[in-house]
Amino acid sequence: MEWPDASLGCPEPGMMYAQVVTPGYKIHLSCGEELFTYHSDCGSRVVYCESGTKEP
What we know:
- By secondary structure, this protein is mainly β.
- It has one domain.
- The protein contains no helices and four strands.
- It has strands at residues 2-3, 22-31, 34-41, 46-49.
- The protein has a four-stranded antiparallel β-sheet with strand order 1-2-3-4, with no helix packed on it.
- β3 and β4 form a beta hairpin.
């Protein structure tokens, strides 16, 4: 993925993020009927994205 900024597609209210295209990954994990989505950069940063967040 190429995220539009350093929020990795999951901005937190009130936070500011560097406006730079950030390469990374969209990770989907499932457990039973539940689906969990995480976004990462190409380094060590991983963020959980709750449903309803805007994803490219």
